Every structure is written in C-alpha cells, then in structure tokens.
Amino acid sequence: MNQAVLILIKPDGLKKSLTGNILTRLSETKLEIVAAKMARVSRELATEHYKHLTDKPFFDDLIKYLRGELHDRRKVMALVYWGEDAIKKCRDLAGATNPEEAESTSIRGSYGRITTSGVYENVIHVSSNADEAQREIQLWFAPEEIIVDLYPVKEAAEIKRQKKIWA
Ligand code: UDP
Ligand code: MG
Question: What is the model's pLDDT at position 159?
C-alpha cells in the first residue's frame, strides 16, 4: 500500500552535517520525495507536533531540542516520502526511539545520543503510523508545497497580506 510519511532532520542532525548522509540512507528505500523544505520551528508548531508527549517530564527540553535551542540551529529539514510501505521502511532505517537501544547500523543507532538531561537526541523524526503521518504532513506543509495530491483539499479565498518578493 502506498503511504506518505513525514521525515524531519532534527537540529542535531543539521549541526552534525548529517543531511547528506541521512538522505543517502533513506534513498535505499527507493521511495519518492514529494516535498522538501527548511523550516523554522515556532513554539506552537513544536508543541502541536509533539502534543502526544505534553505530559512527559522531558517535554520542555524536547520542545527546545526540536526548535534548535540546544544546537544553535533554529531550523529543521522537513520532507515527505511517498511509496509502498513508506512508514515501516523509514522507521526501520531510523531505528528505535532510544538511540542506545537502536540497532547500531540504523540512523539513530549510528548518530543519536542521550543528553545528561535525558532527552534522546536521535537526529531524525519519522511518523509512526498513517494517521499521524497525515496529521503531521498537514501541520508542516501546505497543499501547494507537495507535488502530488495526498489528501483532500478545498478552495479558500486568500486574505490579502503583505509578502516579500524579489527586489
Ligand atoms: N523522547 C525522549 N525521551 C523519551 C521518549 C521520547 O527524549 O523517553 C524524544 C525523542 O527525541 C523522540 C521524541 O521524543 O524521537 C518523540 O517521541 P516518540 O515516542 O514519538 O518516538 P519516535 O516516534 O520519535 O520514535
Ligand atoms: Mg513519534
């Protein structure tokens, strides 16, 4: 079954110059990249992304981590991969959430670490199931940023606003 999955290269992955490496590993899946961008991560976006973990003791540190406050990199790389069994393929390559438990050859096993405050800095986010993937992709991307029609859209009038154009 064809699926979409959200991948984030987290700020530690960017700081450690792992972008190329991670994309090369993900290319083993033969999945198609249908969206990609660098994104600044507002507090609202980070909190919404990790809303299932609001009650955890590490939540505040996790939000700081995703926003790049721990790595002086105020951005992440966000991508949508699409194809057969995309979620399992990407999660298998990523490895377990805890980098100490992740297979040593997996992305998280190779490059992740646990900080002294207990946050798993595991360099990459991968959606955990199809419902989460849809929720997350719709959170991180607008329909026109994705080159295939993944989910239903509707027409909406754009409110006129100031925007930057090339000088
Ligand atoms: N995390 C953590 N400590 C934990 C569990 C999770 O620091 O005990 C962090 C880790 O960065 C993880 C993220 O919170 O990637 C989201 O957790 P989730 O359980 O959704 O794991 P994932 O889907 O990323 O494998
Ligand atoms: Mg998760």
Answer: 85
- Over residues 30-39, the mean pLDDT reads 98
Question: Domain range for residue 133?
Answer: 2-145
Indicate if ligand 1 lies below 6 Å from the C-beta of 123.
no
Establish if 167 belongs to a structural domain. no
Q: What's the 50 CA to ligand 2 centre distance in angstroms?
A: 8
Overall pTM > 0.85: yes
Residues forming the active site: 125
Among 49, 62, 100, residue to substitute to test ligand 1 (most atoms within 8 Å of Cβ): 62
Cα–Cα distance between 76 and 73 in angstroms, integer? 8
Distance in Å, CA 99 to ligand 1 centroid: 10
The Cα–Cα gap between 77 and 39 comes to 6
Q: Are β-strands 76-84 and 113-114 bridged in parallel, bridged antiparallel, or unpaired? A: unpaired
Looking at the structure of the chain, the number of domains it has is: 1
Does 154 fall in a domain?
Answer: no
Report the CATH number at residue 46: 3.30.70.141
